């Protein structure tokens, strides 16, 4: 799984969202060498799987989504104003400006986590 993810990153080279950007600082030549190594590793894995009669493991992506959303929920809970004071002084208006939106996002993420587990609809 990690080899395929790395290969995808090597092909695309960057990923961005609303509040993040990920870039791969490798030259096209370095990327090509790494992709060749990944292809060789995948071929070797296929040979081993065939030799030992191994089959693919089925992974429930709903469970993977639920796990990631649960981790994101915990992270969101940690950025509420009452939790941020652990890191230093917090402006008195921050609770009014931030907490309702963070709580709403945390609720949406919890709904997605439950839906990923097959408990309820998103």
Architecture overview:
The protein is mainly α and 122 residues long. It has helices spanning 2-12, 28-52, 61-77, 81-84, 94-116, and strands at residues 14-16, 21-23. β1 (14-16) and β2 form a beta hairpin. Helix content is 66%, strand content 5%. It folds into 2 domains: 2-52; 61-116. The mean pLDDT is 94.
CA-atom Rg in angstroms: 21 Å
Distance between the termini: 27 Å
Low-confidence stretches: none
Number of helical stretches of at least 4 residues: 5
Q: How many strands?
A: 2
Overall 3D geometry?
flat
Protein structure class: mainly alpha
| β-strand amount | under 5%
Estimate the helix proportion, in percent.
55-70%
Query: What is the H/E string?
Result: HEEHHHH
The largest β sheet comes out as: 2 strands, antiparallel
